[in-house]
Description:
Layout: E1 3-9, H1 10-39, H2 52-84, H3 91-111, H4 127-149, H5 158-177, E2 180-184, E3 187-190, H6 194-211, H7 215-229, H8 236-250, H9 265-277, H10 279-291, H11 297-300, H12 304-327, H13 329-335, H14 339-368, H15 376-409, H16 423-428, H17 430-460, E4 466-472, H18 487-491, H19 495-519, H20 535-546, H21 561-567, H22 602-610, H23 612-615, H24 625-629, H25 637-646, H26 653-657, H27 659-674, H28 678-693, H29 705-715
Antiparallel strand pairs: 1-4, 2-3
Helix pairs in contact: 1-2, 1-3, 1-17, 2-3, 2-7, 2-14, 3-4, 4-5, 5-6, 5-7, 5-8, 5-19, 6-19, 7-12, 7-14, 8-10, 8-19, 9-12, 10-12, 12-14, 12-15, 14-15, 14-17, 15-17, 20-29, 22-29, 27-29
Amino acid sequence: MELQQFYYDNKIVKNFLYATLFWGVIGMSVGLLLAFLFIFPNLTDGISWLSFGRLRPLHTNAVIFAFVGNAIFAGVYYSTQRLLKARMYSDILSKVNFWGWQAIIVGAAITLPMGFTSSKEYAELEWPFDIAIAIVWVVFGWNLIATIFKRRQRHLYVAIWFYIATFVTVAVLHIFNSLAIPVGLFKSYSVYAGVQDALVQWWYGHNAVAFFLTTPFLGLMYYFVPKAANRPVYSYKLSIIHFWSLIFIYIWAGPHHLLYSSLPDWAQNLGVAFSVMLLMPSWGGMINGLLTLRGAWDKVKTDPVLKFMVVAITGYGMATFEGPLLSLKNVNAIAHFSDWVIAHVHVGALAWNGFLTFGMVYWLVPRMFKTRLFSVKLANAHFWVGTLGIILYTLPMYVAGFVQASMWKQFNPDGTLVYGNFLETVTEIMPMYWFRAIGGSMYILGMFILLYNVFRTIRSGSDVTDELAEAAALQKISKRRLAGEGFHTWLERKPVQLTILATIAILIGGIIQIVPTLLVKSNIPTITTVKPYTPLELEGRDIYIRESCVSCHSQMIRPFRSEVERYGEYSKAGEYVYDHPFLWGSKRTGPDLMRIGGKYSDNWHFNHMYDPQSTSAGSIMPGYKWLITDEHDRSSTEAKMKAMVKLGVPYTEEEIANAQHSMDVQATKIQENLYNDPDFVATYEADKKLAEENGIDFVEMKDREIVALIAYIQRMGTDIKIKEPETSTSSN
């Protein structure tokens, strides 16, 4: 049989590798800064674009989509060409994929610190970027599938199955979760509201973890672990079971992020059931990965690549054991909203994604540059420093989570909370935050060791952009199954059928969970007293979203005795029907704010935003001084209200026409309330006099951003009559 000569495109792989390392340093550095902001909350005092709320989504997006995303593309482009014995279908598509993805990341790095955010976790980028992501992702999929069709290898290896499932599922998740009504270039409102928005978001959010941080990395595991160990995959039959059961079950598990919330019970219970089932395929994959090293464990002692991969697979196993555990309602009642979840997330991110990426880089770079790794000792040092960093990061966060849950739920014999002040919990876990910062510092130190090692390795090698290869042309055979050929063996040479079946598998769960929640009204009972936000409250809510207050504060009181006693009446689904987007949160660094309206005076909120420690001793919340000084731009209020009308919010034409007058009246009332504080009056008048002396236009307090934010905060949770909790009948 005549062999055909062709060239693998190594340049695109190298580009994605360089981007992986560059964005890895950026994303991890931002994360380390955030860790230190827990210890020194005023470290970036007064700088809006360096505040915790603005940087937190930048960190998550940089690590997930920039660091891990580029690593996925690097690994997929390298392995796909060799598994299919073909160059990528189009060099142009490869370049569009690379430069388009980098442009999106740069855009995120600029706009997120500026406060342009949708607030939806792992999907914070605004609508122009959502469109760009969809286009670039389709380009990637087009290139991948077209390469499959021009392959010289008939059989599609298991890694390719995972790549196909990743492409299809991420496209579906991203498009449906990102549906929004634009108001301006960087402002939009989710088409879903409240409970429905929460379900769609965590259908996306959980499965972004599943199909962006997991399935492509499983494909990389199935390729690079056998290569590094020089052993075949342990069980091909197990890989088949692993693939199909994982992609079918994973898609159902999203609601376990919303247990004890206002989501309908049937949806919560479905999420729990499938989350528990998820343990089996996940551990099947872990076992398949680790047992691939049978007969090669002696190499693990000396080979840093295998060390990284063993810990990565073990981290995958730990995270996928913990996920089903956290979905059990009695465990979730303890862990949710606490630092336990932070520990869980970082076991997956630092060990599974980070270490597998590092192992892949150490394996790829010498081969790409036709040389030896500069220093095995440095790579081993990186492994031990990074491993210790993970331990020092995660273990204290587990402890912090248990401490938080215990303190939040303790009662005195007379029925009062032992720790009625939320800040008592914060003070107790400060040592854990120090350990996290130290662990994060060690992990990023390992990253710099990797950079130096890779740099020296590249310098000692030669740049081979196009790598010569040869293989026989693919011989066409009957479309029918061959004699003795099993169904899956037949399917493995049929990319179209494989893609269709994978798409059906991932759509079933989403359709069954989401469609009834969107269409069956009984899932979202209405409350007649719940009214749309006033124009000023709507504007204040947008400021709350811009500053990512939802990163630290929840707006979901669960039906537990401890939460009802601490915060007030538990949350009802009907309270959120006008919330585009929902703001339930996933972490309580500060207390829940669902019933904060009317609890404190306008002056208290003003002082709290200017200097949180002045009202709450021991608080680790940073000051938001720019809200006090910046003029509030109300030029697009009417456009925002019209967008809300399209989404079903019952604003009348008269209300929209009178929006500016309505805001002025409500803002003036808040300004009058602020005048009740003599210190406020003195400072305000001094600022006014100073402005006049210097010929500067003075902005009235009623026209500043803080007033709009106070309007929203004072509205929170006041739509229903709040009764004193009856502790004898409250659960938990």
